[in-house]
């Protein structure tokens, strides 16, 4: 690959976490940072992990992937079950190996649970009994997704603000836990932070909301030019898989089902992508460890990282 590791003079292993909303420009900056600090890139994107989904998940190009070693890019199949808990275990194992080669490594992405899994560890969520599952499933079958969303808003408004409200399974799971424990699902998340054997430097990318939304809209148009419609059609027979219940695919599946026009589906992809970016920013803004920058401030970002690494 022609990539050369050098070992930074850092006393303790340190993980640079580059995060931010979809479309903000994490990929381009991550390549520069990886070269600057001589590290690999461990992806924290819950959809780029699937090898079949390239266009709709904005996977880095072959040229970009060749510049720096990447992990968790296209290493799973859409037919495989892959949870945040599995990601936590596998990512920590990979980082252990990488830290033996260089004391600085980097985690890059926007999937909130994946980032928390590595940085804080996931909480042990209680098991839900069959009766509670039956109750929530009945509510969905009788009144639909809107009823689940409304109930979640009533009993856990905190989680409601950051949840993917179109992800039926995630909403059902949150409601099941709320009902089973008598506590908001959000109260059970990240309360017991696990110690990690490395320092963590969190860098967040942001920009003017209008500019971000314009970038997101333009990226959707670019995906369609690259063949997103054909990619989605190829995997339409597998639309029931969790891996395909994601923005960019589910809207096109709805079009294939005859429930909307193509124009409407494309607008829904843009709208849902913008909503996802807003949820990401809401989630990340609650983390006081994150130092925020705009993507063009790459020199300032490098200086901040070096300062925190005491280089």
Brief characterization of the structure:
This protein is of the alpha/beta class and 311 residues long. It is built from 13 helices and six strands.
Description of the structure:
- This protein has 311 residues and is an alpha/beta fold.
- It folds into two domains: 14-122 and 194-309, Rossmann fold (3-Layer(aba) Sandwich), CATH 3.40.50.300; 130-188, Histone, subunit A, CATH 1.10.20.
- Helix content is 50%, strand content 9%.
- It has helices spanning 26-37, 62-67, 84-99, 112-119, 130-143, 145-155, 157-162, 168-181, 209-226, 228-234, 250-256, 262-285, 298-309; strands at 14-19, 41-44, 70-71, 104-109, 199-205, 291-293.
- The protein has a six-stranded parallel beta sheet with strand order 3-2-4-1-5-6, sandwiched between helices.
- Helix 2 (62-67) links the parallel strand 2 (41-44) and strand 3.
- The chain is globular and about 60 Å long.
- The two termini are 27 Å apart.
